[in-house]
What does this fold into?
Amino acid sequence: MSAPARQLDARKGDIVENPYLPYPVRIDDIITETEDKNLKTFRFVFINPEDEEKFAYMPGQFAELSVTGKGEIPIGIASSPTEKGFIKFTVNKVGLVSSYLHSMKAGDVMGVRGPLGNSYPWETLKGKNVVIIGGGFAFTTLRSSIIYMLENRDQFGQIHVIYGARTPGMLLYDQELKAWEARDDMNMHITVDGTDDPNWKYNVGFVPTITEQKAPPADEDTYAIICGPPIMIKFTQPVLDNLGYGHERIIMSLENRMKCGIGMCGRCNIGKDFVCKDGPVFTLAQLNTMPKEY
Amino acid sequence: MQEYTDKIRQIARRLLEEGTVDMVIGFRKGSMPIMNEPCMVRRPQDVDQLVWDSNCGINLANYLTDRKEKIGVVAKGCDSRNIVTHIIENKIDRDQLHIIGVPCGAMIDKRKIASLVEGEITDVTETEAGKVIVKGEGFEKSFDKAEVLQENCAICIHRNPVVHDEMVAEPVEEQTDVDRYADIREIEAMSDAERKAFFDDLYKECIRCYACRNACPLCYCPTCFVDESRPQWVGKGQNENDIRTFHFLRAYHCAGRCTDCGACERACPVGIKVRMLTKKLEKDCKELFDWEAGISLENRPPLDAYRPNDPDEFIK
Amino acid sequence: MTFVKIDQKKWAEGVSALKKGYQVFGPVKEGKDHEFRKLSGDQMPEMDYGNTRLSPKAAIYPQSEVMFTYTTDERKDDHHILKEPERDETPKAVIGIRPCDAFSFLLVKKNFDTPEYKDPFWLRAYDATTFVGYGCDDPCSSCFCTSAGSGPFDEKGLDVLLVDHEDGYLAKVLTEKGKALTEKAGWTQAFDAGQAEKVFGEKAATAEGKFESQISTDRLADIPSMDLYDAPFWEDIAFSCINCGTCTYLCPTCWCFDIQDECRGCDGVRMRNWDSCMSSLFTLHGSGHNPRGDKVSRVRQRFMHKLKYYVDKYGDGIQCVGCGRCVRKCPVNIDIRKVCEMMNQYDPEAQNECACPTT
It folds into this structure.
């Protein structure tokens, strides 16, 4: 055999994992989350049990959900690594893949490729107060983070969560929200833009307003994680500025169109960084030095 | 050509100084032989970059789509016809435009010149006597301009702008004794098998970059059908049926609208004769509806209007 | 390092011999231009060429490539499970590649071979390929490889370098892969090294002396990225662009791709196709928002990627080898040499001063 062929064999040994190959999963359960039925949470179990171990993730990471014949979509992981035996994703019905996914049933086979991207900076957050600010359907990796922190409660200081949606029926994970509201080891502030429900017993008001009222004062030991629609972020950031949060302690998770998820296909870059590989989590201090291409 | 250039600069300077327009769109000297670059001039002191010669083949109507400013635009015959089409299709408003009409002396074809010489071309100049002097490493050749015209220019019958606010020079004489469709008739005369072979060969080098589409002033759809994902009309790979579907459908979208400006062929990086399809549709529109695109602001295009006496023999 | 002499007869015999162990790619004349194609039967590389119209990147990285196959037929046990298709793993030899194009693979490798992830499709093909370069005696006037980290006789990324010599070639065997290839081809007639070095040196010096075109890149790393991003020249540079993407398709260093699923009946493929940052679809979000929705931002992205982001990310020059294809083929004559000059010369502070007198 010629030398080039030997080289090839050697290389085959190097590339044991094909980073484009999804783990096969089975849809275990589907929950319709919101009253407009545009958000569903999918619970997947790995068809090959050993894949669960390979899919070791931290809150803030995402994965490519793979539907044969349609393609892949990058979705934040909504389950927490402390939840074993399954992974969860909440998917908004937007394009080709997500619309098809919404028509699938429990028992169907598809793929999950990941975990991808960085995560929230859990090493930095150890021992710190954490304020989570979320809006609309961008609450998925925040759910993962809350569950993770509550399971490791002694590793964190105060935990505040401010989460809002347009109406009560548009809030994700409503049973969990109510359970968190009842806990005394965290401060949960649920809000809606408006409601005509006379029994609504939580806040009414936009997320920036509630943040202004409920967020703890800024100090060296307090970090804010913000995830939400651009309009919410636009108006929440000045509130945090007024409260004195330094931009290196404001943590954000970005979205961009993605395909490969591993920093190779070239489309999700912001300057020299890729949202898929160097992000999706960046501090505001980092984003201040980058083009606004997201 | 220098008179044209001087006159264009003079008009552009006046329009910008008077504030008649916010910008003038024209050409500036390119960095490569036989190439000029479309440019936009906003300040009177910058008008001296504007030029005119036989390397201004790019259709400037393509740069007007959906713009909001008041624009002075340099327009030869085909540009003006595409401007008319743009106005009819509401892609620009007539009141936004000050059309600087250029009677066109036809454009020279860089591929044709390259095919007539061996070696790299480093300089091409044109003499007042209608000669094109081509220089390269170790050679200098002279051609009659008529030998090296873009194919669409050689058979053009609308060299003068059909609409303008002022002219750079007196109109040139229009060509009347040209056979626009000799090549199309040859294709029409082919057997099915021959025609299939012809089209297979025509598109075999397509790399689906869509330069032809992007260069075309008619192709302004916000999302082209080839880019749609719901539904996905064509596959995205190099399947030959997908490639043909793109070319055939794009041509159909241009039926009754194409002015044969040649932008598609100029832009194609692999030299596909894209006009072989659009010209067939142009010929059909001429024969069936006595229609030429972009001649008048008053008449609706044939595929955009119903007339009781429209021919229908081709519908079977 | 060894040198071998190949006369015309040996050349033809050698290429034929190589076809028995390699998939051989070489320049072939098609119409007026040359392209790299897989050589079939008794086809020989046509070495009398300046540069190919498309870059040879497709030999490693096809424009459209099947990554996985699957069935959607739920009666089958493995329905919806992706599998890698069988591949032709015969080694490849790319013969007659210009040094600039060979160098481009080293740049592209930085993207596909990272500490965190390896792209198996690209890397397998790359590792299985032997690059036989062909020194460039007559660079085009729009070539600028000598100021883009390469040169007409550059050896980076090559396994063998050929130069014209008498009625055939002299080959400089640069790597073990190159040695294996020349042995397989029967190109074993040793040539005196001292004499050969002299031939190579003289040829390189002659060719380098012919370059008319240069770019300056010395300041690119030092100018802050956001200053370049916000520079006032982008609107003017981008004005003529029709976002056709020709530059990206022809470029040997453009590596971006799209991933698409396609099915015929129940047989599906997941494939990747070259993609282009010139396309608005490249970055369009599902919501309709587009972070690079206008052409100015897309044109800026292309040049910033090649001449700034890449420079900052890898600290190893620009993402351009100076082959000049984009300069020659741009339908509206946007010229990367001019853009590079504007970027490299840019002085944000002078810009501020410049703006002042009008206020």
